Amino acid sequence: MVIGDLGPMGRLLTRGEYGHDIVDELQPVAGEYVVDKPGKGGFFSTTLHQHLVDRGITHLIVAGVTVECCVTTTVREANDRGFEACILSDCTDGFVPTFRSASLDMIHFSEGLFGFVSSSKPLLLALSPLSARNRSQVPEWTGSMDMEVLKKAYAAGLSPVTVVQEALRRIESDNPEHPSIWISLAPREELLQRAQQLEEERNLHLPLFGIPFAVKDNIDVAGISTTAACPSFEYVPDMSADVVKRLESAGALLIGKTNMDQFATGLVGTRSPYGVCHCVFDHTRISGGSSSGSAVAVSLGQVSFALGTDTAGSGRIPAAFNNVVGLKPTKGTVSTRGLVPACRTLDCVSFFAKTLTDARNVWLVSKGFDPKDPYARSSPPLAALTNRSLLHKEGTYTFSVPPRDLLNDVLSSPYIKQFEKTYSLLRSLPHAEEVTFDWDSYLAASDLVYKGAFIAERTAALDEFLKHAEKKPSLLPVTAKVLESGSSISASKAFTDLYEAQRLSRLVEGEFEKCDILILPTAPNHPTIKEVQEDPFELNLKLGIFASAVNVLDLAAVAIPAGFIDGLPFGISIVGPAFREGFILEVAERIQARMECDF
């Protein structure tokens, strides 16, 4: 039999014929991934590899038709990329029985040369305890905004209206102690109507069904003012930012828009006419910024997650200071369309959540190519699609930490002690190997963020606004000084800095050939509000010593809690190459699991 012949299951269709591609007839549930690629394997010329590693998936169960072609080719492609795959023989079929049998034999030749073959019975047996556990009674919802808790509570009958009412109650209750978290809230009646609509439709397949969230006030939401913490800049957009639309389409409920450092010019949380945000754990300490309100809202449990932005560490430093997770994804993978720019070439949407799982799930919904975003990236480079992007359960990985003399120079004494404790834990982790790294190049990139080209870019982003003198009075003096400094930078200086940034990026890219990840303190210390107000420029600059390079060098990072120092949270960041978020998150989960036992 050849392609096009009539077989026992009907005609063996040729590629491109109607019916060869079933996607038109298939309606995937929300969040389900479909490869619209008839014939051959599922990996070549698709985003399947990235989709799997983003989710931390290393093992595949494969079923389908035809064994002679699509099924076995997909398994061999998976094997080439470092995945382990097993074909379920009783869940597959083929057109020629002898060819089908030979194809399966080829896969598991020599004890799994290309993969494995099994019937479905042992798999179903192994999964049966999980199925029973999922059917067990769900405890009554006690108000937790953890996304996994909410998901189970919704499955047991919880109403999104109840969750929205609780979120609004908490915001009101926290307001006397934390009056500067929010710039605007969604109209109450509209929010409750949206929650009621979700309740009536009750599509629990939506990946973020009924999950309350906040948005930093430099990200557009249709019908709600965008201020970027500058009243005279205020406008009301007709359209939401692409990332907001994705989240709402997935079932998430927008509660409101949060406070921030004006025009995202700081890492402190004190540069806002809407009030100073303070640390959840000490009202005399800064919250961190510029995504101050978003981090504090998540830390207080007012929402399940929040959007921030990250241009120089703004999505990670507030996370560290408020004991939450802060994920900064690869530039261009989450649309920045609908974002008030700080530095267009560096800006990223970031994510705050209480847990790594929640941060990952929100990021997965948010990411995707936006052809209307000039900085969007459609797919990772081929170099990212290798077995180095996977981290198997017992897979070895390499890491580096900043040299001791550097840490002693820049960290406060309490931070030195806490990072030493973290370092001891890292060295004890199984399958982790420490290697050297070119930290000089990394730190040189941090120095570029608040100098030359990137300061000029901040000024250029607001050029039209700055031309109108009548709008300038609502600029804070510290913001005005930052933006004015960009006007005096020459074109030759700007290009010199851009050349240097590219040179450093290439050097660091080479370093990541031998080192999988960097592990470092998210911030060097935790200043008080008073200290920052007395020295607003130098202290702000120092806060980004480890964080800012991530943006200049086109890296990805996640900030996670790493214990407490005298009642104040301490945080570390795990940093890796672009498009390695899945790998970074897997390492972060290993570290966090050990910390929960040892710290």
From TrEMBL:
<dbReference type="InterPro" id="IPR036380">
    <property type="entry name" value="Isochorismatase-like_sf"/>
</dbReference>
<dbReference type="InterPro" id="IPR023631">
    <property type="entry name" value="Amidase_dom"/>
</dbReference>
<protein>
    <submittedName>
        <fullName>Putative glutamyl-tRNA amidotransferase subunit A</fullName>
    </submittedName>
</protein>
<feature type="domain" description="Amidase">
    <location>
        <begin position="163"/>
        <end position="583"/>
    </location>
</feature>
<dbReference type="InterPro" id="IPR000868">
    <property type="entry name" value="Isochorismatase-like_dom"/>
</dbReference>
<dbReference type="InterPro" id="IPR036928">
    <property type="entry name" value="AS_sf"/>
</dbReference>
<dbReference type="InterPro" id="IPR000120">
    <property type="entry name" value="Amidase"/>
</dbReference>
<keyword id="KW-0808">Transferase</keyword>
<feature type="domain" description="Isochorismatase-like">
    <location>
        <begin position="11"/>
        <end position="108"/>
    </location>
</feature>
<dbReference type="GO" id="GO:0016740">
    <property type="term" value="F:transferase activity"/>
</dbReference>
<comment type="similarity">
    <text>Belongs to the isochorismatase family.</text>
</comment>
<dbReference type="Pfam" id="PF00857">
    <property type="entry name" value="Isochorismatase"/>
</dbReference>
<dbReference type="Pfam" id="PF01425">
    <property type="entry name" value="Amidase"/>
</dbReference>
